[in-house]
Amino acid sequence: MSKRIITIGRECGSGGHTIGKRVAERLGIAFYDKEIVELVAAKTKLSPDFIDAHGEYFRSGSLGHIIGYGGRFASPMQTQSSLQDHMHFVQTSLIRELAEQGACVIVGRCADYILRERPDCLNVFIHSDLPYKVERSVREHGLAEGEAAGILSKRDKARAQHYSFYTSQTWGMSQNYHLTLHSGFLGEDTCVDLLCAACGK
Hints:
By secondary structure, this protein is of the alpha/beta class. The protein has helices at 16-27, 35-44, 48-54, 64-67, 80-101, 111-114, 130-141, 145-167, 183-186, 188-198; strands spanning 5-10, 30-32, 104-107, 121-127, 179-182. A 5-stranded parallel beta sheet has the order 2-3-1-4-5, with helices on both faces. The protein starts with a strand and ends with a helix. The relative contact order is 0.22. The model is unreliable at 61-79 (pLDDT under 50).
């Protein structure tokens, strides 16, 4: 079966968003990254800022490990920890809906794990060395050069903890993906070419 859905996990600053968007444009399919924030906000009535801050980044105090997370929330409770778990549940349902709707690229948010049983899904992880990520983040996102390394490291740590919490797997471990790409070594153009080729295009 050809791969019609691409999930992209990525280190901060590695260019995963840009690569994913370019792949979607070349293949003529839908692209979801920050778009998921607005969709989840509409479903949960939570603020986009809260969803953006908690959709991929672990925050301590979540209740999922205590009660055994698995769709147990009929409606959001009023603590930040339970709201985070409710938001993840809605986000999970949404990602499954998006995959059912048609071919697409989905960035982050444990999508590789959520869609792990789909044979038409290509799971990708994009990473790079720190100097490349720092240079790119300063150039593309305006981070201060002296602060960029610390910011990227903090964000990646929070992403890794979030992924581990909700999947019980290791974020970025090659065995969890079909393809891992070193964007700094390969370059964005080659990464895009390889992903399109992996989808038979």
